[in-house]
Automatic annotation (TrEMBL), chain A:
Domain of life, per lineage: Eukaryota
Location(s), subcellular: Cytoplasm, Myofibril, Sarcomere; Sarcoplasmic reticulum
SUPFAM superfamilies cross-referenced by the UniProt entry: (Phosphotyrosine protein) phosphatases II, PH domain-like
Family: Belongs to the protein-tyrosine phosphatase family. Non-receptor class myotubularin subfamily.
Protein name: Myotubularin-related protein 12
Entry annotated with the keyword Disulfide bond: no
Automatic annotation (TrEMBL), chain B:
Coiled coil regions in record: none
Keywords: Cell membrane, Cell projection, Cytoplasm, Endosome, Hydrolase, Lipid metabolism, Membrane, Protein phosphatase
Protein name: Myotubularin
EC class: hydrolase
Amino acid sequence: MLSLGSVGAKSTKPSFVSYVTPEEIKLEKEPPKKLKHPDLLPGEVEFCSANPILKYTQDDLSQRGVFGTLFCTNFRITFISDEKSQEETTKTFKNKLYGENDIPLMFVDHIYGVYDEKRKLITGALVKNKYPSKIIIHCKDLRVFQFCLTYTKEEDAKKIFQGIAHHCLEEKSLKCVFAFSYTGTPSPEMQRKRETILFDSPEDWTQEMKRTKANCRLVTENENFELSQRLPKYFVIPSALGDLFSYQGKGFPIWCWSHYSGCALFKASLPPVTQEDGDFQKHFDIMINAVAHNYLYSAKTEDLSESLPTIQDIQQSYNKFKQFFLIENSTDFWLSDMKWFSSLESSGWLDIIRQCLQKAVEVVECLEKDNTNVLITEEEGTDLCCVISSLVQIMLDPYYRTLMGFQSLVQKEWVAGCHAFLDRCNHLHQKDKECYSPVFLLFLECVWQLVQQHSPAFQFSETYLTVLSDSVHMPVFSTFLFNSAHHRESVLKHQRQLSLPSTAFKTPFKKGFFKDETDSLKKMLRVKRLSRWMGSPDSTAAISREFYESWQQRPLDYHGLLLPCLDGPAVRVWMQRYLRWIPEVHILGGGSVAVMTKLMELLSQVQDLKRVLEQRDSSQAAKPDHRPYIQHRLLSFGSSGRLPSSFPFAYSRNRSFKPIIPTGLMQCLMLTDSLASQEDEASSFVSLV
Amino acid sequence: MSLVEVEEANPVMASAPIAPYNSSPLGNSSSPNASRESLKMEPLADVAMLPGEERVIDKDIIYICPFNAAVKGKVFITNYRLYFKNTDSEMPVTLDVPLGVISRVEKMGGASSRGENSYGLEITCKQLFAFLSQEKYEENGWNVYEAMEEYRRQGVPNSEWRVTFINKNYELCDTYPTILVVPYKATDEDLKRVATFRSRCRIPVLSWFHKENHAVIMRCSQPLVGMSGKRNKDDERYLDLIREANGTTKLTIYDARPNVNAVANKATGGGYEGDDAYQNAELVFLDIHNIHVMRESLKKLKDIVYPNVEESHWLSSLESTHWLEHIKLVLSGAIQVADKVSSGSSVVVHCSDGWDRTAQLTSLAMLMLDSYYRTLRGFQVLLEKEWIGFGHKFASRIGHGDKNHADQDRSPIFVQFIDCVWQMTKQFPTAFEFNERLLVVILDHLYSCRFGTFLYNCESARESNNVRAKTVSLWSSVNSDTSLYINPFYTPESSRVLYPVASMRHLELWVTYYIRWNPRIQHQQQSPVEQRYKELLVLRDQYLKKLEELQLSDSAPSSTHLTNSSTPNAATPNQRITHLQTPF
């Protein structure tokens, strides 16, 4: 995409409000001679640039690098090498979203400055004074860039540093996001492929209900967000629910999916109780009743904010986890290699993934085995509810394991379902960290676990998931930019009067008091009403273990129910996403890529043969010459024989056939054990000497 | 009725060739076990037996399954195995354990007749089944490896290296093979003098020769330097001859041990090559720990996977066993050896005696350097040469037929090596002709005593016990049905050096070996990708055949030149396509 040449991008009138002063833009119009410029996207504008900047190569310790120019635009930070364009040299693959040296502004996670050998995290306050000799940029897709500013003019260095820091770190308004300046039109090819159901029309929901044979009620009363701005435009509720407007301000049980037996999964936001307790209980009873009425008057509910980690826990865990992959040099890499497993464990990230999958399996069991309606609740109803409901649907419904089905699911549960992407991804670098949490990434992680355990059940690959996880921060798309359907509409309708998202949407402060109250309420309810509640964590784990084992003993049907194995060794690190930029772990000519290449090779051979046979069938007499075609295909695969395991993401350049030899080995295994100092054959040895 | 528990201890039980619990309700169709299919069993009463197998005991017992509740059934003990089958029909549970893999029998409960069973086990263990087996195979696996043939394949002897028969009666070194390759300029008298300075007379001899740059891998034991720092002019000169052979400026000596251990070895007469004595050599310590450390490490690993797999603290538990760290050290040592040799410098590798860590390092380095060893045949040659031929003490390390399970000589060094090979096959899924199943089968029969391949400590002992004549080689069985062990993704690449990444990020626990008997771990016969690939291969062959037929009918009816291309060989698709193109 970025390789598309842009025509007159700079001359078009920018449709956004810029932070840069007119002087800066003017300067930009008279660039130093011979300076190479990036190919700008339609609507992309350069802010500032500096040359020469040294970009360190990550491949080795020697602090070598390439000289070039660093640019900052309204879309990205980009580096263009002075050397002959490395782009074109033997590249067999490239990233369509962004180039090797492109850092879209929204990708920037942290910037560090090196001042007199000391590394400091850059925040607003540091920008004003000195500029560092070196800047280190940590990206959300886990790339690490290091630029040395000391070779360029002081003035330029200062400007580029301040520009980058300003555009990447300062809190900004939504209208400054590049998506609003981007004037590119989707290619006809992209427009054609609109099979993904967006769930932005009543028809989409009706169709989905029909597909799953649901017996629920479509709500169109919120078309103008009169019921609630936090609810989707259209949604589906149990048909037993009465007048909607009488429940205003309280949660609705929103239909997610219906099992073929008739029971269904619902989700609801369970706002902290501000009303009288009795009132809350009454409303809760109505919800449960309505849900239970859906099928055979049975229902189970699960409060996810109680049984799963909070979004703050998730964020903290991920923050720890990602540090293990933001590797700046070889020494760090090998040092961290020693305690790799325990480091991973201490972050708790894999355990959170396991917990989410476990919870989803429990819900699946209710639907599949007990045919009970399930209502999952959460304060907001748009975070872990989305994770669990999406996972349940993927496990139960093979349609969601197709590419279009999966994208439709993301639209249904996440985009139309009002997951607060803007806040959770912190696209605007707001200082308020309370609401920032990689919930959607957590979902993709869980899906990845399923994909790696049962890859033939999915139409898409792990590479698709990796690219999707990057796309969240890709500001040419607006899919993951907004907090809710209402937010999306109001922003897109009134682009001129943009405002920051209303504070009303922020996560309410959690109060222990309310939690306790609801707890006791539920205990009462359990006794009074419900057939069966989900038991304590211990017993459910044992029960679902049984459920898993009985499933596992049946022959595996990729078009049927799919459950993950959650044993210790089965939950793994998403290697492709997390290790793709680390040259130390690239296996040249190895990894799963090698097998996939072989498979593709054979597939194309089979297809060619099939074509040849068909041709012969159709034109026996003509005898077309198909030889060149086959040879061409074989050749194109012959050259791809040694792809790095990081394909299709990173290149391992300048890596000849030298192996990477681990350093600091001894430190990891200082055994003080007496065994270590023992002789191999102590007893018999002495006699020989 | 008696209560028997087969305690699955040590590496031994983790490697029982048959999953003790068959989780599939469809019987053995989805059994993960590879070796069972390779058995050609004769149905005999309830149990299929091998030729030469005899029933000793059968009894009704209750098997206390570690994963499920107790199961009622019948146990049979033969001179080869313990076999259990349940009598309740609801869920088939079978247990099929060669006696050789049973490391320990523990008594439990108060049932009176248990002693009888354990007594029976002890007796049979001493009678190695390999000597009683009457299995017949088309090929004689004992002929897989011929030392002279293998050296010739490498390009030896030549003007720099000669073959010596000085050890033909095992007089120079009783744990070495008869045929040895040494520097051309070293006389047999030199060798004898060098032998006095090397532990157990294991002098530096050639393991592998680099055809292009003539660099070599030499293996030996430690020099007998001792506390006083003894020197030996002959040894020093001998090492210099090795260096000179291809003009290496500095010979690199890889001492597999940690530095401190090498120093400590001086106290017992051993040691390492000092700077002063060996001026044209550099010494590198590879920090690999000894057999006792490895044994304890695998024991710890067993504790975290048996009977239940640690769940919540899996990763830190795994780390605390250090098993993968040891694997990392062995692999990175071998990478250094291979890298040095491929850059043109000759190397000498030793540890203390040169039969444990040394064998690991040389054979792994050879696997990286020489694609021949990555073929099904070549791998057998590698094992025969570097492990069996050069005297890895299989009998002592595994303890075949020995009841002293706490023996300090036991250690899973060979298991560790196979694990390293497995790690390499994982990282390079297209570089090896053989598949994971071969590795599992090798380890199964390392313990099973069904074949003579891994019996005894060295060649001289095998010769005096007439192993070749009296037992069947594992390779007879393997090579009689190679299709079981072929990796369909194999792409031969002759000139490529394979460097695995020795980082914890890539090393993983070999779940399908160490935890394969756990019913919760998914037993996939083959990966779905492999299955798809095989389907496509079949489809391609069908199309090719069809095309051939069409072409045959096109050309003169008498032409038969295409018939030879229809052999069902999966390994060389490109060749076949081009071959097919010629008549177009």
